[in-house]
Amino acid sequence: KCVDAGACSAPDNSRWQDASYADHPVTDVNWNQAAEYAVWVGGRLPTEAEWEKAARGTDGRTYPWGEEPPDQSLANCCDFVNDTMPVGSYLAGVSPYGALDIAGNVWEWTADWYDSGYYSRSPVQNPTGPASGVLRVLRGGAFWVDASFVRVASRSRLVPDNRLWDLGFRVASSS
């Protein structure tokens, strides 16, 4: 709908037009495309801190569902399926705040610029990331990565212009 309305550019694949992928995450979008879509639907990309709290909860868990490593009922990772899955396929892997598929399926763009040392000097509450940078933060892992990449603490980064087959996003909104 966003592409048809002329508010967003198309992903760099044809899956988004294939009805059999209608419930899968949109992939092959760069950071700007993800941010534009989020605004178009009345939201925004989550900050890295928001993403982590939504995944971890308040009890410091290793994975959104707890401490046990992922299996085929908890997350789409570890080459269990070797492709994306429809959003909401892993109800047993839900986070404490109800976020589905926040571990695995696709890497997710966040609003933040990447700085490896940022959290050693950031505000304790609601850090919003560095003001500028070269790379954007990715969280969540993807369907092909091993269990270490779907841990809540795992972070990655990428140049914002990249569009990859395992890269998507989620939309956040302020209450």
Précis, in short:
The protein is mostly loops.
Beta-sheet strand percentage? 5-15%
Helix content: 10-25%
* Major beta-sheet overview: 4 strands, mixed
Structural class determined from secondary elements: little secondary structure
How would you state the average pLDDT, rounded? 96
Order of helices and strands: HHEEEE
Q: Give the strand order of the largest sheet, numbering strands 1, 2, ... along the chain.
A: 3-2-1-4
What is the radius of gyration?
15 Å
Number of helices: 2
Number of strands: 4
The poorly predicted ranges are none
Distance between the termini: 25 Å
The outline comes out as globular
Which tags fit this structure?
175 residues; little secondary structure; globular
Q: Can you describe what's shown?
A:
This protein has 175 residues and is largely without helices or strands. Helices cover 11% and strands 10% of the residues. The protein is built from 2 helices and 4 strands. The protein has helices spanning 31-40, 48-56, and strands at residues 107-113, 136-139, 155-158, 167-169. A 4-stranded mixed β-sheet has the order 3-2-1-4. The longest helix is centred in the first third of the chain and has 10 residues, at 31-40. The radius of gyration is 15 Å and the shape is globular. 36% of the residues are buried. The model has no long low-confidence stretch (mean pLDDT 96).
